[in-house]
Amino acid sequence: MKKWRKRLLKIVIFGLLAVLVLLGAGAIYEQVSVRKDLKAYTPSGKLYDIEGKKMHLYTGGQGDVTVVLASGWGTANPYVDFSPLYDKLAPHVKFAVYDRFGYGYSDTTDKKRDIDTITNEIHEVLQAAGQKPPYVLVSHSLGSLEVLRFAQKYPDEVQGIVTIDSGSPEYYYNDAEPPISGGFVNQLLIKTGVIRMLFNTDAVIEGARAARNGLEFVPDDLKKIDLTASLLKLKNANIDDELRQSRANAKVVLDNKKPFPFPLTVLTSDYLGVTDEVWNKSEKEFTSWSLQAKQLVIKDTEHYVHQYRPDLVTDEILALAKK
């Protein structure tokens, strides 16, 4: 009996040591890979000093109207995400894609991700870059909250708003599910390189891109940037806090609700035919935010509508830019 116990104890000890060695090796692999990625991960646009940190803005196009593009929550690299729109926008309007802190090429910040702080940062980076209104604000997903708040705070600078499958403030306050934190396990998988190793397989990469139409309209070089960004931005305090604050942020926008005098176009995905009554109802009611509003349901798309129908999304943006 004693021999059996000693043998079992040795097995447990060796097993634990093996796990620790693997975790240590994984952590070193992750650290080396991050350093390598950061060297190659150079800004596509320019960095500006905002509140003591570097904030990234990518710009292009020509014209008298500037289209300001706000990415959804968790979209690691907004520059890549909106890239299918650039060639169609550029001949007609200027455009500016900003990275909130914690995203893309921007730094992380110690400031809480409350809606007024985020909105002030957006306004500051546009000014620092020399961008001038009128703006057509375009939001995807949770980006709607900062776009609406921007329009509330700076109404004279806004010509119109286009939302791309963006939830309304009413939805985020009343109906959205509470945010779930991955906690210790997620951090462990990231820090020990497990997630990175999984993303070395084609099946995992394809699965991660599935809801974005496989990035069909994104060039291969930008797909590589997207993958690098996803690994670098997997977990940071700004992205976490942004989701944590989403209900409180929605409340601020709701408390200041007054229908806008400028146009609002609500683009809604049909989720490839899968019906969600709560979401569909909230999207229809989203039109209450403007005296000149319309909703379009885009067939055969999922949440990243602009990755499925960049032509249609661009047409709706340009329609507001011409008004």
TrEMBL record:
GO cellular component: membrane
Occurrences of domain AB hydrolase-1 (ranges): 66-182
Organism taxonomic ancestry: Bacteria, Bacillati, Bacillota, Bacilli, Bacillales
Protein name: AB hydrolase-1 domain-containing protein
PANTHER family assigned: HYDROLASE, PUTATIVE (AFU_ORTHOLOGUE AFUA_2G14860)-RELATED, MONOACYLGLYCEROL LIPASE
One Pfam entry name: Abhydrolase_1
InterPro entries (alphabetical): AB_hydrolase_1 (IPR000073), AB_hydrolase_fold (IPR029058), AB_hydrolase_sf (IPR050266)
